[in-house]
Design brief:
The structure holds three protein chains of three kinds.
Chain A lengths: L3 E7 L2 E7 L5 H8 L18 E4 L2 E4 L12 E3 L13 H8 L9 H14 L5 H7 L11 H15 L9
Parallel strand pairs in A: 1-5
Antiparallel strand pairs in A: 1-2, 3-4, 3-5
Chain B lengths: L2 H16 L10 H5 L16 E7 L5 E7 L1 H5 L3 E6 H4 L6 E3 L5 E3 L5 E2 L5 E7 L2 H8 L3 E6 L26 E2 L2 E2 L5 E8 L1 H10 L2 E9 L11 E7 L4 E6 L4 H12 L6 E4 L15 H13 L3 E4 L2 H7 L2 E2 L2 E9 L5 E11 L28 E9 L6 E3 L7 H19 L3 H8 L8 E2 L5 E2 L4 H12 L1 H16 L5 E11 L11 E2 L2 E2 L2 E7 L5 E5 L8 H13 L6 E4 L17 H28 L6 E3 L3 E4 L2 E7 H10 L10 E6 L8 E11 L5 E11 L6 H20 L4 E2 L5 E2 L18 E4 L17 H19 L12 H10 L5
Parallel strand pairs in B: 1-16, 14-15, 17-21, 19-20, 28-29, 35-38
Antiparallel strand pairs in B: 1-7, 2-6, 2-8, 3-7, 4-5, 9-10, 11-20, 12-18, 13-14, 13-16, 18-19, 22-23, 24-34, 25-26, 27-28, 27-33, 30-31, 31-32, 34-35, 36-37
Helix pairs in contact in B: 10-18, 14-15, 15-16, 17-18
Chain C lengths: L6 E3 L4 H11 L3 E4 L5 H6 L7 E4 L9 E4 L2 E5 L4 H6 L1 H6 L1 H7 L5 H6 L2 H6 L7 H8 L2 E6 L2 E6 H4 E3 L2 E2 L6 E8 L6 E7 L9 E10 L2 E10 L6 E2 L1 H7 L6 H13 L11 H22 L3
Helix pairs in contact in C: 10-11, 11-12
Classes of the chains: A alpha+beta, B alpha+beta, C alpha+beta.
Chain lengths: ~170, ~800, ~290
């Protein structure tokens, strides 16, 4: 099979590569680009552990061929920290609110929450729960993930967030 | 400000700085996980690494007529294709299981469950390996299969395990049939039968805890790298028990154990799935030894759900005998246990049915008898403890459902019946009829707190009104109130009755204080999300007065960590947590000697004060642990060796017995069968609480898994032995939308034998949650004389209950 | 799970896309959002040798009000449908339906054309399109033709698309102002296909139902337009007896498979329940 030449921007950096058409975006990111933050959890598009941000959409990178990303701008978990290297509001929120345990779903969850907050700066709990319904977590029962996203929203909006992680 | 206030503030500040036990310390793990810098097995990349993939059986039971690998081997990029014929000369076509059976690594003459491993393809990348699996030509001759465990021991049942057909005594005693694995009995059968014969009231119910799967978000995976020159094997893998894996690999490969380096890096959830040894691990090891290059194996989700480690599949005929006033006087249980094609249960070796004999629960039941028959079927092997200590979820489900059935028969309130039969606080340590010594408990206090919090009386009043409204046709909803009061048994375990392959189930901690007062500590356990790097440091911080942020916890590298039995069965805190405290106390004792030398006083003149030893009566004369550490390396007392470190291998004197009171309020739409959880309240008593934030997180997660198990999650087979729904489309893992909101609460009854009084909590919510949900469902239909409704309680099954009861008009 | 090998094509015009598909024949599949096709390829239940990606074709994302219709380009995503004020104002049931399809990520990529064209009985849009009386513009090398959604579905994954044709636009007659609507979907969890679902659009005048159209999802090999059930409702006040008769008529045309969502008889009954609930919501929403 002919390999395809693709150009993508990943975390702000221009990347050119040759890929087999069937190479899944998740494998392209993890194996060719060594960005191992996004994970494979289910192989069928249900768990969202592979979620990355692509052209302002949350995308399941194990349900996308790398060739489909040609020309796209992609953000992965490796690209979401603040410019000075400190944790972003969402990353900080997940830590402060105990929104993660094994950490496997976390990169996808944070990327999804990132896009959710871009589209809805002050979501209700219900909007958050529906907003992250494409991401499965086996550890947290979601309670503290919801709080983590609320914490981040408050921090970004400059409003106080009082709720402590239980 | 008076002097005492100043002292109090100073002490509070020093305590706060430690971030020790009892505080909601934020997790150190999260710094890397939130940045995508965790290091999981599939993140690892080695030069020249190859990928393995399995050819699997489409049949549940079939004879293998032939295997032709030539087309696969001809595919460019394919390096090797292994079959049983390749493994047999090495003696590796079978591997020992933790339950004393053997399991085929690659099927030799026949396959015994669908998706069983038949050949292992090794190729340059995972894409080619996947392509090549389609090019291995296997000819099968299908055989009749057994799916229903009740048919396993019929006289004309097909014999499944021809390899052990003539071996009529198994690892756990005589076998009654070629498809029988063991019979395990405990309790006083005659006395129990006598009680039942004369009881006022008895109940008998077949309670099925159906087959499901732990399904952590990361599947099972391994990476083996054999160095032919040094003769050393390094094996990274998803191992909840890395040291045990090292020993097993040594025993089956013949490699000396010191030349095997097993490393469990970050693990994406375990829940029991990653305790056992799997064909993929063995094949990646063999592949690397044969080829001399690293070989990686990564399971996909379908393989995970259909081959590695199912849970449950217990068919429990449960009986209670009681007086007409509601005093339970006896319990009798028979379990038919479906173990699948190989007995690969991950239990302590002497316990073929795990700790099922905790099934007398939280109640003072004078006599009991339990018998368990394990049988083979054409299903995947496993039988692991899915977020519970061994078979404890099954045991608690049996007693907590049965007591509700009894309450209904007696016409008593289910909470009242429980309270009437609770073991009383003054009865601890309590010896149960089936052989356990419960260390501690205060059930009445916990139950009262829970009932007050949920508003039990008003819930029952509301339910009574709703039932009348339903009968009048004013609502199509049924309201159920679920109760569960569970007692767990965790922290395996004492050497006298707990071992794995002959290794006693101790655990370990090694703590080393550096000259500058910072610490590295290594444990024999292995976190899969529980936050060990955070919480063990809190124990040490409190014990040694060193800030938790200055303590690094390391696990998973068997070269550096002391030998331990791993993390499962909620044993980390009860066993390794105890080891940590004991090792810290050894260091503290030496530190006291050093401090005495430094302060030129007798040891006995010193007292511990948060982070320092001070001279009694002279609080301004003290040495901090940091100062002591420096002195330990710089100017130790003349008769003392330098350094400041200690190791402890802790053999627990007893298990710990966490307990809890759970309540669930559920509304069921009769017309669709859809059940909505309105409230779920969980009160847990896990003894001393090390990090309340992490405890609450564990409870949230465990309840969510319990919800899934009770309300829809299952591994089902059709009559041909085809596994159904082995993907996240069908296998019910709730999203944030379906998951109920959880209310948590606690009481504290410290374990009397544990150095810090802690008991373990990670699995309680699962164990207690499953029966609570099921009881809520059953309670909703109880006034319609529905009889016991089996799990899982997914919508169509509840709709069928409505059909049976004529509720659909 | 790894897909088999294929060649990738990314035409920029509809003409070149259909020419390619015709030339490559049965070994080629068009690729839109990919969330139905790629899972099948990863489990190797589908192994096309060529994928013709429609993503780069300009003009397949049209979203316009033209006369008494709305026209939706096939590559319009579910996310775009949800966020379109035009569609939400004119045909609000589209948004209500799109919101219960799959999950947020899949709605960013999943397209309305893909959902309608691939013939999966589990997809939600086809029954809705039948309910709305939509038609599909099918484009081949010979140009366009128009096929009603009610005539398009022939069997599971079997449609009226001829070799080389793709679905390029959907034309939906705008329901009258004040119409009532409801899409009710029973599913096990977010991300699941329907156990059963019903789409209802009605108009009411002085308490009497003046028109009714009903579509049913995932209770047969194809989406179902429950024409007889709709006819029964028209002229009634939506009284209990009439609704019961309509539900019975709708249930009668179902032929669901038994699967992990439940046995066939359950899914048939759930089609009826979903219809009742969608109809009730539509009745409440109808303003005349």
């Amino acid at each position: 099979m002919t390999k395809s030449h693709i150009k993508v921007t990943i975390n702000g950096k221009a990347v050119e590569a040759l890929v087999e058409p069937r190479t899944l975006l998740i494998h392209f990111l993890r194996e060719q680009q060594n960005l191992t933050g996004a994970h494979i959890g289910c192989d069928t598009g249900h768990c969202g552990a592979c979620t990355v941000d692509m052209d302002e959409m949350s995308v399941k990178s194990c349900m996308t061929f790398a060739v489909q990303a040609n020309g796209a701008a992609i953000t992965t978990i490796e690209g979401v920290a603040n410019a000075d290297g400190t944790l972003s509001a969402l990353q900080e929120g997940f830590r402060m609110m105990h929104g993660l345990q094994c950490g496997y779903c976390t990169p996808g969850m944070i990327l999804r929450a990132h896009r959710l907050l871009q589209e809805n700066a002050d979501p209700t709990e219900d909007e958050i729960r529906h907003g992250i319904a494409g991401n499965l977590c086996r550890c947290t029962g979601y309670v503290n993930i919801v709080k983590a996203i609320q914490y981040a929203a408050a921090k970004i909006n400059g409003t106080p967030y009082q709720e402590a992680a239980e | 400000m008076n002097e005492q206030v100043k002292i109090d503030i100073d002490r509070a500040e020093r305590t706060e700085k430690l971030q020790g036990m009892g505080c909601k310390r934020k997790r150190v793990e999260d710094i890397r996980f939130t940045q995508g810098k965790g290091s999981y097995v599939d993140d690892l990349k080695l030069p020249g690494m190859l990928f393995g993939d399995f050819v699997r059986s489409p049949h549940a039971h079939a004879r293998i007529v032939s295997i032709d690998t030539s087309r696969a081997k001809a595919l460019p990029g394919v390096i090797a294709v292994l079959t049983a014929a390749d493994l047999k000369p090495l003696g590796l076509h079978y591997m020992p299981t933790l339950a004393g059976d053997v399991q085929a690594v690659l099927a030799e003459h026949k396959v015994l469950f669908q998706n069983q491993e038949v050949a292992f393809v090794i190729a340059e990348d995972r894409y080619i390996a996947s392509d090549a699996t389609e090019l291995v030509d296997v000819v099968y001759e299908a055989l009749p299969c057994i799916v229903d465990p009740f048919k396993s021991m019929l006289p004309d049942a097909p014999i499944l395990r021809e390899d052990i057909q003539d071996k009529m005594v198994g690892a756990h005693g005589p076998r009654k049939h070629p498809n029988h694995i063991f019979e395990w009995q405990i309790g006083d059968r005659q006395a129990t039968d006598d009680v039942f014969a004369n009881a006022d009231v008895t109940i008998k119910e077949m309670l099925v805890d159906h087959r499901t799967h732990p399904s952590p978000l990361e599947t099972c995976q391994s990476l083996a790298s054999f160095d032919k020159v040094k003769g050393e094997l390094t094996l990274w893998g998803t191992f909840q028990a890395p040291h045990v894996i090292r020993t097993v690999v040594s025993l089956i490969s013949g490699l000396p154990e010191h030349k095997i380096h097993v490393i469990a890096p970050d693990i994406g959830g375990g829940f029991g799935n990653k305790v056992g040894a799997y064909a993929g691990y063995v094949c990646s090891v063999v592949g690397s030894i044969v080829l001399g290059v690293p070989v990686k194996w990564v399971e996909d989700r379908m393989e995970n759900l259909s081959t590695t480690s199912f849970a449950r599949d217990y068919h429990m005929t449960t009986e209670l005998a009681a007086t007409k006033e509601g005093k339970i006087i006896g319990m009798r249980v028979h379990v038919l246990a479906d173990h699948g094609a190989f007995d690969a249960c991950a239990d302590p070796s002497k316990w073929p049915a795990g700790f099922m004999n905790i099934c007398t629960g939280s109640y003072d039941i004078p006599v009991a008898y339990l018998a368990v028959d394990g049988v083979y079927t054409n299903k995947a092997p496993g039988g692991v403890a899915y977020r519970c200590s061994f078979r404890v979820t099954e045991a608690v489900f049996a007693i907590e459902r049965a007591i509700e059935v009894l309450a209904q028969k007696l016409g008593m309130d289910a909470a009242e019946l429980r309270i009437k039969n609770f073991i009383k606080a003054e009865q601890f340590p309590y010896h149960s009829a089936l052989g356990w010594e419960y260390d501690s408990g205060d059930y009445h206090t916990a139950m009262k707190k829970a009932m007050d919090a949920i508003g039990y009386t008003s819930l029952r009043a509301e339910q009574a009104e709703k039932r009348e409204a339903f009968k009048r046709g004013e609502t199509r909803e049924l309201m159920g109130v679920g109760i569960s009061f569970f007692t767990e048994i965790v922290g395996a375990g004492p050497a006298k009755n707990c071992d794995i392959l002959g290794i006693a189930m101790f655990d370990s901690a090694e703590i080393r204080i550096h000259p500058t007062g910072s610490v590295i500590a290594r444990m024999g356990t292995k976190s899969q999300g529980q936050g060990h790097e955070t919480t063990y440091a809190q124990i040490i911080a409190t014990e040694l007065g060193i800030p938790a942020d200055d303590i690094m916890i390391e696990e998973g590298n068997t070269d550096t960590a002391p030998y331990g039995l791993g993390t499962y069965g909620s044993r980390s805190t009860p066993v390794a947590g105890a080891a940590t405290a004991v090792a810290a106390r050894k260091i503290k004792a030496k530190a006291q000697m050093i401090a005495a030398h430094m302060l030129e006083v007798h040891e006995g003149d010193l007292e511990w004060d948060i982070d320092r030893f001070r001279v009694k009566g002279l609080p301004e004369k003290f040495k901090t642990m940091k100062e002591i550490a420096w002195s330990a390396y710089n100017a130790p007392p003349p008769n003392l060796e330098p350094g400041l470190e200690a190791v402890n291998y802790y053999e627990p004197p007893n298990m710990t017995y966490p307990f809890g009171a759970y309540f669930c309020v559920m509304d069921i739409d009769v017309d669709t069968g859809v059940a909505k959880t309105r409230r779920f309240y969980a009160l847990d008593d896990c003894g001393t609480r090390i990090n309340p934030m992490i405890i609450e997180g564990q409870v949230h997660g465990g309840l969510t898994e319990a919800f899934a198990c009770a309300m829809g999650q299952e591994i089902r087979y059709d009559e041909m032995g085809n596994v159904m729904g082995a993907s996240f489309m069908d296998f019910f893992l709730p999203t944030a939308v379906e998951t109920p909101k959880w209310e948590t609460d606690f009481t504290v009854t410290p374990s009397p034998h544990h150095p810090i009084g802690a008991k373990g909590v990670g699995e309680s919510p699962h164990v207690g949650g499953v029966p609570c949900f099921s009881n809520a469902v059953n309670d909703a239909y109880a006034f319609l004389d529905a009889g016991h409704i089996q799990m899982p309680h997914d919508a169509w099954r509840l709709w069928k209950v409505g059909e049976r009861l004529g509720l659909h008009g | 799970m790894i897909p088999g090998t294929f060649d990738y094509h990314r035409p920029t015009t509809v003409e070149s896309a259909v020419a390619l598909l015709l030339q490559l024949g049965e070994d080629a599949r068009p690729l839109a959002g990919g969330h139905s096709l790629i899972p099948l390829m990863k489990t190797r239940l589908s192994a096309p040798e060529h994928l013709v990606d429609l993503a780069a074709i300009e003009g397949l994302r049209r979203l316009e009000h033209v006369g008494d219709h709305v026209v939706i380009g096939a590559m319009t995503t579910q996310h775009a449908v949800i966020n379109s004020t035009l569609l939400t104002d004119l045909v609000p049931i589209l948004r209500e339906t799109a919101l219960v399809i799959a999950d947020p990520q899949i709605r960013y990529k999943g397209t309305i054309g893909g959902n309608c064209a691939n013939g999966d009985p589990g997809n939600d849009m086809p029954a809705l399109m039948q309910c709305l009386g939509a038609s599909y513009q099918l484009t081949g090398t010979g140009g366009h033709r128009e096929v009603s959604a009610r005539d398009f579905y022939l069997g599971a994954y079997e449609t009226a698309l001829a070799p080389g044709e793709i679905l390029t636009e959907i034309r939906i007659p705008v329901p009258p102002a004040g119409h009532g609507y409801g899409y009710e979907k029973l599913k096990r969890k977010v991300g699941d296909y329907a156990t059963a679902a019903a789409a209802v659009v009605i108009t009411m005048a002085a308490g009497t139902c003046t028109s009714a159209s009903i579509g049913l999802t995932n209770v047969s090999e194809t989406p179902l337009w429950a024409a007889e059930a709709g006819r029964i409702l028209v002229g009634s006040t939506l009284d209990a007896a009439t609704v019961n008769a309509a539900v019975a008529a709708a249930e009668a045309i179902t032929n669901p498979a038994s699967d992990m969502r439940g046995p066939a008889e359950y899914r048939t009954k759930m089609a009826g329940i979903m219809l009742r609930r969608a109809l009730e919501r539509a009745r409440v929403r109808a303003t005349v």
